[in-house]
Amino acid sequence: MEIMIPVWAHMPTPQIARKELDDLRGATVALVDDNFDEPFTTHLEKLLTDGYGAIVNRLIKPLGSAPSPVSLIDQAARSQVAIVGIAL
Amino acid sequence: MQSSESLVMDDYEAAVELFYDRGWTDGLPIVLPTRKLVEAMIAATGRDRHESLGPVPPKGGQASIEKLAINAVMGGCLPAHFPIVLAAFEGMMAPEHNVNGVTQTTHMCVSLAIVNGPVSRALNFNSRDGVFGNGYRSNAAVGRALRLALWNLGGAVPWDTDKATMSHPGEYAFCIAEEEEDNPWQPLHVDRGMPAGSDAVTVFACEGPHSVLCSGAPEEMLHVLADSMVGLGNNNIHVGGQMLVVLNPLNAEDFHRRGWSKWDVRQYLWENARRKLGDVAACGPVHDQFRKAQQAVGRYPFRYDLDNPKTMVPVTQSPEDIHIVVAGGRTYFAAVLPGWGSFGGYAVTVPIRPLAT
Question: How far is B281 from chain A (nearest CA, A)?
Answer without folding.
Answer: 15
